[in-house]
Design brief:
It is a single chain. The protein is mainly α. It is elongated and about 110 Å long.
Length: 81
């Protein structure tokens, strides 16, 4: 029983030491960001070639927005109001 307890204790200590070594030797996540390369990439050239608003030149598809729909819109006004 004593040898099993000693073996488990040594195993736990070794595991803790390995975890601490891994944590302190791994590169930190808060490192400085990489600067963008100055060369033009394929994705960048495709992005620049696409218009920013593809719906800019779409025709008006709403038939109710036209001023010709309402026949009373251009009628003479009531002079007694």
């Amino acid at each position: 029983m004593n040898k099993k307890l000693l073996a488990v204790g040594i195993l736990v200590v070794v595991a803790v030491v390995v975890i601490l070594i891994f944590i302190f030797t791994s590169p930190s996540q808060t490192s400085t960001p990489q600067t963008a390369s100055s060369t033009q990439t394929l994705g960048g050239s495709l992005y620049e070639g696409v218009s920013q608003n593809p719906a800019q030149n779409m025709p008006d598809a709403n038939p109710l927005s036209s001023s010709t729909i309402n026949p009373f819109q251009k009628s003479p006004k009531n002079p007694f109001e």
